[in-house]
Amino acid sequence: MSQPIRFYHRNAIREVSDASTTRTVLQYLREDARCTGTKEGCAEGDCGACTVVIGEPDAAGGVAFKAVNACIQFLPTLDGRALFTVEDLRQPDGSLHPVQQALVDCHGSQCGFCTPGFVMSMWALYEKHGHATTPAAHCAHKSVPSREEISNALTGNLCRCTGYRPIVDAAEQMFDAPAPLAPLDVAALARTLAGITRDDTFHYEHAGRRFDAPRTVEVLARLKAERPATRILAGSTDVGLWVTKQMRDLGDIVYVGQIEELQRCETTRDWIEIGAGVTVERAYAELAKQYPELTEMWQRFASLPIRNAGTLGGNIANGSPIGDSMPGLIALGARVVLHGADGEREMPLEDLYLAYQKKDMAEHEFVTGLKVPTRSGAREKLQFRTYKLSKRFDSDISAVCAAFAFIADGETIREPRIAFGGMAATPRRAAKAEAVLDGAPWHEATAQAAMLALGNDYAPLTDMRASSTYRLDTAKSLLYRFWLETRAHDPLPKHALDVRAIQLVEVQ
What region holds the FAD-binding PCMH-type domain (predicted)? Predict the structure, then answer.
């Protein structure tokens, strides 16, 4: 029997029973709840005009808040959660919230269309630093973010009027203001959410379409085995566009966001193990502890609202040739874990991708997790970098994404791994360039020979983001950059190309 979608919004528990399974949160807000402060700009998660904040129970018994794009989130995914919009910041006496007042004082708004989205991104940051909690907690947990953290929090919001300086100024100034008259009581909210959290699968139906949100992997596997064509939904950052841009009928949906097992993220002696339901933001935070070289890629992976919603498992399962996570993970030797009717299996991540949008997965199988080797043993000497080329620094799709890794045995290269996105129909290793490097000294001549070999590894296409020539030339340049960044402090003089390297290049 169909259950109502149950969530907290505007100081009350709401129940919805008559919405499509793919009705977006933005559509609900503007057309049903008449909360029109939230705007529609792009309907694809790029501009941030629709930014709202979702609150969900955390492991510590509190509430975790994250800014997300309402335009691509489906309403049934709100079940058991809290939804906050710009209307919620209005104070009891009608005054502005400190976040809003700071934008006024710093002249951070002109036409105002983007402003509600900026407000909610700023409010999420405000709450994160302990400013929107109960008065007693206000002083105890108050902190101020760096300007870099502020800029990162605003990566998902675009403004065409002000430039960004006054908005960033406002984000700094809002922390100097007194606490709001009615700060959010997080403890009370946690109790409310605990009261509407389901212990079993949430089942919702509308117009012949099903939406199931199981609580265990076993139930997910059973649902997928019974109806293999059922669409698996995680963060909706890609699937959402199939509805808003391509007008596709998704059929039945099974949502993995309520499965606690898939939210697991831990590091053991040998592996960093990340469940398929872990968000991109949280996954990269864990990976960067072992591999700080991933920090820039973490910051440049889409935007914070997308990273807050999208999952690393979803990015891997999607398998886009321009997905930013795969090259770095492949270069690190990651393994993907699959689950299906026949049980569990795992494989090297690069083996998952067979051809464009074709993966080594049965229809009933799904990704449950990722295993990345830790930096232990011989891997303590790992040289690793990952690079992204795109037209914008923030929130843009890669033209080329590259990752390089090898174990440095003195001056000798061991176990080289090179992977690229944007260079082929799938994320793919550069086998011929790796053969040039394996066992060779890490000299400039070796790097140049490997650069030549890349021409035999890839024949990239030309599209709206880059030409084939640009892609291949910049791929070679990125490998050279890797050499410049990882060479010895006192590099040896240039010398003729290694004969073995030349032969490897010429025979391929």
Answer: 203-377
